[in-house]
Amino acid sequence: MVDTLYIEESISEHPRALEISSRFPRARRILCERYSEVFNPKAQNFRLQKKRPALILAKKFKNFLLATPPSYGIGAQHNYYFSHMLNCLYDCRYCFLQGMYQSANYVAFVNFEDFEQEIRQTASTHLHQEIHFFSGYDCDSLAMEPITGFARFFLPVFRSTPNAWLELRTKSTQIKTLLETDPIPNCIIAFSFTPEEISNALEHRVPSVEKRFESMVQLQKSGWTLGLRFDPLIYQQGCFAQYSKLFENAFNTLDINQLHSVSLGSFRLPEKMFRKVHNLYPKEKLFAAPLEAANGMISYKAALETELTEYCTEQLLQYIPEEKFFPCSI
Ligand code: SF4
After folding, report:
1. Which atom of ligand 1 is found nearest the CA of 96?
2. Could you read off the pLDDT of 102-113 as tens digits, one per residue?
3. Residue 136: which region, alpha, beta or left (left: phi > 0; alpha: psi -120 to 50)?
4. What is the pTM of this model?
5. What are the start-end ranges of the H helices in 125-208?
6. Can you tell me which atom of ligand 1 is nearest the CA of 88?
7. What spacing in Å lies between the alpha carbon of 128 and ligand 1's midpoint?
């Protein structure tokens, strides 16, 4: 899966770097000073790199936690996101990461303990309030779990910090670590979905909708609290019926009482990112949809966006109580 490993010299003897690197005994190893030397240069071919990304092991020095946009959340007043990795095993055509980074190589930050320290410190400043920490913004939270051991490390951190809630956002079926761990009440495993027809067309390498539901059922049986994320909502011909079918399937399959929250969000990308992604895949049907630019963002035309959002909202509220529903209006 990875045939080239770049390793920052300063962490080359870090136990986690050694452990991750031992999973790729045949990979070419290249030492570097800072990951940005490899990751940031312009004129890299994202599309080509995505076929065989290298893995870069690095140390993060600052910005371990970032505040989420104000309209983003699932019920808490204080919300942060954090990224132990940059880039993703999967290849969703609508993914903003393609427009955000010059490189498709994976970066894994190995100094988990520094993230832990910030999480504990932030949680201690609001001891009597729930604080939500979202993982899976710059990567998928579980897709690389067998390599990084991310959940294995962070689950105990949150178990011992009850006012800190962790959302693991994923499209992965890598749930072994979770099944081997007693469920944690303040941890939500949030699975993202688009309808099967859209997933098949746009979410390359992502496990099928059916396989993801199977993982969710297994997790619910083990006592884990789950979330459903329909974000971004994607428009294509027939999508209204496809979303209906997806919701029906989800709520016939899952125990609604064990669902923490359901959220949805519109498709939108900053204009500059959109242009970059569009240039990568100019023939992609996704970009032939009725889109418009407004306030520096590209999204579906307002009337269409409202129609799709209202339709999905109405459908979802037939299955779940309003207090579990969190539309995201970024
Ligand atoms: S799973 Fe999420 S992070 Fe990964 S490519 Fe798809 S949209 Fe991007």
Report:
1. 8
2. 999 999 999 999
3. left
4. 0.96
5. 145-148, 150-159, 176-179, 196-202
6. 4
7. 34
